[in-house]
Amino acid sequence: MASLVDILRISLMVAGGATLLLIPISLALAWLLSHRRGWWRGPLEILVTLPLVLPPTVTGFGLLLLFGRYGPFGRLLAPLGLEVAFTAGGAVLACLVVALPLAVRPLVVAMGGVDPNLEKAARTLGAGEWRIFWDITLPLSLHGLVAGVLLAFARSLGEFGATIIVAGNIPGLTQTLPLAIYTAITTGDDRGALLLTLISVGLAVVLVLVLARVEGSLVATASTPVSRTGGEGRS
User: Fold this and answer.
1) Which DSSP state fits 79?
2) What burial letters (b/e) apply to 11-42, b meaning 16+ CB within 10 Å?
3) What integer is the mean pLDDT of 145-165?
4) Phi, psi for 125 (deg, rounded to 5)
5) Which numeric CATH code is attached to 4-234?
């Protein structure tokens, strides 16, 4: 088992990397699901939600089939010298996919709650979709983005099933906090397992408190610009 410093470093690196990649992906998916209609919406919503209901080991096996050395995407990446399976990149990918629904769903609800009259008014004034998104939709749904980011980061820190299948349990490379706890338990290191468990619980409690505080603050402040802008639009 790797040192505690390495375990925490890898855990934060993997969770942070997955969360950063999730921000643009979740913004694009949430906007499509909340602002567009078409035959593709149902399949896309199912695809986004699947990692939430599937066992993580099933998700991990699917990713391994796709991104393994002999998988379709693995073969495309091989000439570029890129490997996903049993690498830190594989751990990031596993966390990204598993945490995707938790990042997208709050943002879909937040974007769907933006007053469509504000966006329509902006269009009549000549604003393009890109500007409407940045100036109206995103600021008014910021609480959903923050909630999704924190939930995705927390889920990535606790991810086990998909990670161990896609990235393995390699000390100093892919061994995150949950994998280190598993290793400590299976090797009879009860003391180490207890220490790592307490650290994991502590991180989870901090994230839950931060989520509650930040989301509550954003929801409270978001109502003021909405009502003010709405009043200007009616005048």
Assistant:
1) G
2) bbebbebbbebbeeebbebbbbbbbeeeeeee
3) 93
4) -90, 5
5) 1.10.3720.10
